[in-house]
Amino acid sequence: MNKITNVTIAGLGGQGVLKASDILTAAVFSSGCDIKKSEVHGMSQRGGSVSSDIRFGAKVLSPMIPRGTADYLVVLTEDQVDNNIDTLREGGTLIKPDTIDSEKLTNKRSINVALLGVLSKHLDIAESCWHEAIRNHLPEKLFDVNIEAFNLGRR
Amino acid sequence: MNTSKKQLLSGNEAIALAAYHWGVKLGTGYPGTPSTEILENFSRLGGKAQWAPNEKVALEVGIGAAYSGARTLVTMKHVGVNVAADPLFTAAYTGVSGGLVLISADDPGMASSQNEQDNRHYARAAGVVMLEPADSQESYDFLIAGLEISEKWKMPVILRLTTRICHSKTIVQPRPCDSPSPEPSYQTDRAMRVMVPANARPAHKKLRQKLSEVALWNETSALNQAISGDKSLGIITSGISFMHALEAAPQAGFLKLGITYPLPIEKIRQFANSYERCVVIEEGDPYLVESIRAAGVMVEGKDEMYRFGELNVERVKRILAKDASPEAILPKGKPPQLCQGCPHRITFEILRDMNCIVSGDIGCYTLGVLPPFSAIDTCLCMGASISVGLGMRHVLDEKQARKIVSVIGDSTFMHSGITGLVEMVYNRPQTGHLVIVLDNNTTAMTGLQEHPGTGYSLDRQSAHQVSIEELSRSLGIEKTYVMDPRKEIESLKERIAECLAGSDPAVIVVRSPCILSVKARKK
Question: For the domain that residue B257 is a member of, what is the CATH number?
Answer without folding.
Answer: 3.40.50.920
